Amino acid sequence: MLRYAIRRILLAVPLLFGLSVLSFGYVRLIPGDPITAMLGVNSNPTVVAQLRERFGLDRPLLNQYGDWLTGMVHGDLGVSFRSQMPISTIIVDRIPATLQLAGAALLVTLLIAIPAGVAAGMRPGSRLDSMITSATLFGLAVPAFFLGTLLMLLLALKLRLVPSQGYVPFADDPAQSLRLTLLPALTLGLAISPYLARLTRSAVVEVAQEPFVPFARAKGLAQRKISIGYVLRNALPSLVAALGLTIASLIAGSIVVEALFNWPGMGRLVVGAVTERDYAMVQALVLIYGALFIVVNLAGELAQGLLDPRVRLS
């Protein structure tokens, strides 16, 4: 397992390097000039030239990339064009909001997807299985932005059960923080649940075909005990690996949800940086999100190997 982990970490290095090249090239393809976008079209040309020199935008692209990559290797994420503050400081301020949303959305996902996947997988081909499978297919087809808009119109504007937007740190006011977190977390959790429900169903169907399941039924054990104590427990390694993919999907989906609900996290920071042509911020965030995807998937695979000797041996 240790050699596998080291090999995967070494493999992540060229992946991150390629991602850095793509992110650097992508932001240069965004129409418009970042300094003009920051100061306005009627800005003083002298001031524009000074700022372009300050941020190194007057240098050749290869030199710009080399300077940025060198800074990243040394832990310097650069300075935001827009706020002219260190990017690391801005990101650290946004992390708690994203973690709060992601944690709540993960809880919603687990409460919906695991029971649905187990129920469908224990009765493959049944009416319940068909209903859950159809529901997950429908859920996969509905974009998170559209789902969030519907929930906002229904729960916040029509029924007035929860606020439509806003953020309060949990430490400041736990009750209000939970009320404000509910709607975006429900949106993100419902959007991701179909993925995990289908993966859970596949894992349960596979385990339910093992000989010990009919043997447990022959012993007269209750269906609930068989589902939880035998099938779900033996499907746990596959579910742990699927959980890594689920968390990665939560990270990606949070960008859309945070923008929709005006949630002050890293996802909203990504959208703002792209629209404001903040080159340095976009490059840093793309690389951070890429690193998070790699770490989460690696953690899921290693956890699966620790739980399942067959995976560990392979």
Automatic annotation (TrEMBL):
Residues 95-300 form the ABC transmembrane type-1 domain. Its main location: membrane. Keywords: Cell membrane, Membrane, Transmembrane, Transmembrane helix, Transport. Pfam families: BPD_transp_1 (PF00528), BPD_transp_1_N (PF19300). It is found in: Cell membrane. GO terms for biological process: transmembrane transport. GO terms for cellular component: plasma membrane. It comes from the Bacteria. The chain crosses the membrane at residues 101-122, 134-157, 177-197, 239-261, 281-300. It is a multi-pass membrane protein. SUPFAM superfamilies: MetI-like. Belongs to the binding-protein-dependent transport system permease family. PANTHER family: DIPEPTIDE TRANSPORT SYSTEM PERMEASE PROTEIN DPPB-RELATED. This is ABC transporter permease.
